[in-house]
Amino acid sequence: MIETERLHFRKMTEDDLPWLIEMRSPEPVNRYLGGTRMQNPEALAKRLKFYIDCYDKFGFGSCIMSLKSTGERIGTSGLQPLEDSGEIEVGYNLSERFWRQGFGYECAIGWLKFGFEVCGLGRIVAVSVPENIGSWKIMEKCGMRYEKNELHYGIDCVFYTISRDEFLKKEV
To answer: What is the CATH number that goes with domain 7-171?
Structure first.
């Protein structure tokens, strides 16, 4: 797994389900993640299994994100296949009290670096509901470019992308 200046990441386990439900239950968080249709205990149990399976299949997946300074869990982030296309997606979500502190950018750039430099991926994508301006601003700050709007996870999303070459040029 990766580490960044302020964040530690670890694989999710089945023991994380109660925390995941609690973290994604508040409306300000789940409205950007498909709402209660996708962020309910049954859907999250299924999604957690998907996250765990990704580690075995791909060597990466969505992870628990914690503060290095305290160990407190603040959200989840990582790389995973986008269910609709299989393209590798960088994803991130935070408990609301950790918004607007630079953690979204810090984790996203860390996962992009891991995906391109360690995993050798050629392209990474990201999706967000159009209303989540903070998320797509992070994508743009990471050097990703808007490509189109399309349905993912059954909802309309903005679709951003960056190639390995584009990212490595940005990093120089």
So the answer is: 3.40.630.30
